[in-house]
Structure formats: structure tokens, C-alpha cells
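Worked example

This section walks through a single chain of length 382. The input is the sequence exactly as stored; nothing has been trimmed or padded.
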Amino acid sequence: MTTSSASSPIDQALGLAAQALFLSNPNPRVGCVITSPSGQVLGQGFTQRAGEAHAEIMALRDAAQRGHDVRGATAYVTLEPCSHHGRTGPCCDALVRAGVAKVVASIADPNPQVAGNGFAKLRAAGIEVEVGDGASASRDLNIGFFSRMVRKTPWVRMKVAASLDGTTALHNGVSQWITSAEARADGHAWRARACAVLTGIGTVLDDDPSLNVREVATPRQPHAVVVDSQLQTPPEARLIMPGRQTWVYCAAPQDAAFQSRKKALEAQGATVIHLPNPHGKVDLTAMLHDLATKGVNELHVEAGHKLNGSFVREKLVDEMLVYLAPQLLGTGFGMAQWGPIDHLGDGLPLTFQSVEGIGPDVRIVARVRGRDHFTSNKTSDS
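Given that input, the structure is written out below as C-alpha cells.
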């Protein structure tokens, strides 16, 4: 394991947490650094795959392997140590048993099963607890986890590749490739950090996408989600593959033809979920809540302009990930088909998070204004 070159232990812990970006879903990305009273690093670690060791356990193991005694040490951790029994034991109990004297945590865990209980158990054992250093960075790294725990929906990130004038496909549907190979590889890195990648049935029928990560190394593949009102997904669709879940959300009448199509998809390993709204389309809000129950923290949307428009119109988008190519393509399909609106104030307000060059293209990350302001009464020290 390696740490960042940052000077403070909490910055080093945040650097370690970032190494869990593609790994720890649906668990949060957490880093831990244990130091002696003199500041020597005794052990460090970050959260492993779900069901495996959390950051604190990895740091304690690292210290033991180095031959260090952590009694009287300080543990710097980017999220409140867990206090509940899941697939692993409580990290706060492990820190107590190890004899650390102090825990410095960036932010409280929004999980209702923890939510301050970890801090309470540490303090009850006589361990000093400080909270707040690195809180913003830790929350941002785990924005999807916080969203799922507090709002009970994933963080919805919509990815778009377009020309400078906003065209995502020509009038005849041709779209490969508007942006560069560098932009596509960068987009796959954003796929890799998501719990699931979503598209619509139009994209499935037109392009037969895999929706997997190919351009960057990743220890896990995101699950696949299809919005398919009439249940038209072919059983041989490439996005249905071993090793990950494929969830097909539909709204078609559950007649004999529907049951036959459902049986064919489930025979290939897909899961069909019937969630209609009053208009005979998939209830997107209900779908997001359902995905949260399945452990989806970040939902990466790569769909066509119609489904994108539905997400925007229903105010379900949290963040835009936009790649702009340095060319004009004129009349074609846009980023999202919605509106028209009559007043400028009715538009979707965004705040730029970053604007960076990716090869010959520009990548813009913009959050829908106010969407990241969700809070819980248990997201700070208590």
C-alpha cells in the first residue's frame, strides 16, 4: 500500500481512501493511518471488497506485520468506525481491543446502524475522539453512500459525450465516436467507480452495449440497469453477463407475452422488475429507491436524449459528467429532450465542480445546484 505525499495523517488517510474508489462498493471508501505519539506511522490501510476487512482492520494488520505495538497510538480515519455487526465485526471494538488512545475521524457515518454509536463506544472505553478534519473531502468521496443512507436513493450522475454545440448524435443516429479515445477511457474510470450503469431500451436495441469497464483496470464490474417499459430487451443482449447483476425495469401489462419475455430474460440471469407509473412508463423515482435497497450508491447514467430528458424533467439528476469535443455538428440529437420552458429561471441550475482537458476534449463536472445539500441529524459528531 502507498500513501499520498500529503503531510498530515488525515490527508494520508484520504489518499488511502481514494484507493478504494473502484473496490469497496457498496461500502464507503475509507482510509486509516495509525501513528505513534511521536508521529511515526505504525500502520495504514483502506477498505477492501464488501465482506472483507475495513480500513481500520487493514491498518491494525499492517501495524502488526511491521511489528509495531499500537497501544497509546492515534488512529486517523476518514469515516466514523463502524459499531455494528455486518459481514465483518465492529471496527470500534477492534480499536478498543488494540489499545489506541485517540481516534481522529473526518465525519460521522450516516448509516443509521452507526450514526454516532461508534464514537459513543470509543468514548465509553476511554478513547479520546475528535471529529471534523477532512469532513468535506471524505463526504465528497462517498457522496453516493451518503445519498443512499440519507435520501434512500443513489447519487445519479449523467454522462454525456457531445460536440461543442451540444449534439450527441447526428440526425441519422450516428454517434461513434464524437469524443476522443482519451475521453472514452476517462469515462470508463467514472463507470468503474459507480455501483451500476444505466441505459434505456433504445440504446440497447440500437447499439447492444456491454455497459462494462474495459478501458481502465478495475477489480469489479458495475451492475447493469435497463429502463425498458415494454420489456423489449433481447435475452442475448451483451449487457447480460456473468459476474454482475442486470436489472431490467419495465411497465408493460403482465400478460402471457410479458411472462414469456420475462422468463427468457431470467433464464439468462437478468432480473425483471415491474414498476409502472400511471402513464405506462417505468416509475423512475420508485426505481431509484429500489436500487438503493440493492446497495447502489452511485448510479452512472449513459442513455439517449429521451431518457436523459425524463431524468432531468423529473428532477432526478444530481450531477452532469459532460465531455465536449472541439467540433460543431449542427442539427441532431441533444443532451436531454425535455421542456420547452417559458422562463430562464425554470432551467436546471448547475454549479461547475471542475473543467479539465482530456486529450483534445473538455470534461465538465457540474452538480445540480442544491442536490448535495441533503443532511441527516446524525452526520456530525454526537
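What to look for: Residues 47 and 54 are 4 Å apart (CA to CA).
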